[in-house]
Amino acid sequence: MLPPPPNRGLFFLVLGSICAALEFVAQANSATDTLNVLLIIVDDLRPSLGCYGDKLVRSPNIDQLASHSLLFQNAFAQQAVCAPSRVSFLTGRRPDTTRLYDFNSYWRVHAGNFSTIPQYFKENGYVTMSVGKVFHPGISSNHSDDSPYSWSFPPYHPSSEKYENTKTCRGQDGELHANLLCPVDVEDVPEGTLPDKQSTEQAIQLLKKMKTLARPFFLAVGYHKPHIPFRYPKEFQKLYPLENITLAPDPQVPDGLPPVAYNPWMDIRQREDVQALNISVPYGPIPVDFQACSFLTIILTTPSFSLHCLHISQESSEKGILLYLLCKWPLGFTPSLNS
After folding, report:
1. Using an 8 Å Cβ cutoff, are 41 and 133 in contact?
2. Is there a catalytic annotation at residue 293?
3. Cross-sheet strand order for the sheet of 70-72
4. Do 284 and 268 meet the contact criterion of CB atoms below 8 Å apart?
5. Domain residue extents for the chain
6. What is the pLDDT of residues 168-202, one digit of tens each?
7. Is the pTM of this model over 0.85?
8. What interhelical angle do 195-210 and 15-28 show, nearest 10?
9. I need a surface site. Which of 3, 207, 294, 306 has the fewest CB within 10 A?
10. Residue 136 annotated to the active site
């Protein structure tokens, strides 16, 4: 496995960093017809972006990419749950074929020995590499991110991700808490970094490394945010003053909603700041000021993620299974998605 890069201190995750490294590699391969592939996946990032008409969110790098890319307006995830949707688009098969509707089975054992997109590239001479959250971790990817089938090297996971659900959020009482809303001073968190920052550094390092090799590559980079908890560099709060934040016009539970169609968000209720609200289960209202802060933290993460060539984002909140998909050409493939 190629070694992880050293910690270079605080810098925000920007599109230019990866694009510059990718251009560096592209120049090295310009003499051949072989295309390198960079696949970037962002967990739970909904299409609240400038390129989709959102006037509040500042996403200049994504918008710039979208301006000269194929931007899909009507693409949908197979299922609004992490493991099934990732396995679905990475194998090109529906969940009723992979037999995965939750997190508790590995498709090669319970459904069929279906090839994945990176596996196809690997079997056709590509070096395939995984950084961050590409497959969902755990039994749904055989506790190995589908290694060794899909990857030429053991997948890279940032060392700081083990702190994601620990007490790293400084509260108003000065103590550390395991909160849902968690703006941080990056220098003060364990290891002085955040997982997505580490993943970006590793991706750039791998792109530079691949320039020295004569083989084409497939590099998948998976970002954790904006998946909960909302842990982000607090200096970006200034981009979104609370007085500019408006809430959804229909926050109430619809009349006659079947219980099976409602998610009481038990995982969110386990966070210390949410527990302090003492919200009744399952339909208790969330205080308006907490809703505004939650919305703020979600959109704060969106400008921080880099993407190029192919970008898939899954969404599982009130917009259901809508996702956004960007393809910058030339590109060797597009995954199978139902709309």
Report:
1. yes
2. no
3. 70-72, 324-327, 310-313, 37-42, 217-223, 127-132
4. no
5. 36-164+194-250+265-327
6. 999 989 999 999 999 999 999 999 999 999 999 99
7. no
8. 10
9. 3
10. yes
CATH topology of domain 36-164+194-250+265-327: Alkaline Phosphatase, subunit A (3.40.720)
CA end-to-end span of the chain, whole Å? 38
Question: In sequence order, which residues have a C-beta less than 8 Å from that of residue 308 and are 6 or more positions away?
Answer: 15, 18, 19, 22, 38, 40, 65, 328
268 phi-psi bin (left φ>0, alpha ψ -120 to 50, beta other) = alpha
Two tokens, residue 131:
């950084």
Of the residues 19, 68, 110, 136, which is catalytic? 136
In tens, the pLDDT along 121-149 reads 999 999 999 999 999 999 999 999 999 99
What is the phi/psi pair of residue 197, to 5°? -65, -45
Question: If we measure between CA atoms, which residue out of 85, 145, 135, 120 comes closest to residue 323?
Answer: 85
How remote is the C-alpha of 324 from its chain's centroid? 12
- Any long-range contacts for 55-63 (C-beta under 8 Å, 24+ apart)? 56/240, 56/244, 56/245, 56/299, 57/299, 57/302, 57/303, 58/239, 58/303, 59/302, 59/303, 60/303, 61/14, 61/15, 61/16, 61/303, 61/306, 61/307, 62/15, 62/302, 62/303, 62/305, 62/307, 62/326
Contacts of 175 (CB under 8 A, 6+ apart): none
The answer to whether 118 and 220 are in contact (CB under 8 A) is yes
Shortest CA distance to 127 belongs to which of 21, 23, 217?
Answer: 217
Q: Which two tokens stand for residue 236?
A: 């970006």
Catalytic position from the list 19, 51, 82, 169: 82
Contact 191, 200 (CB under 8 A): no
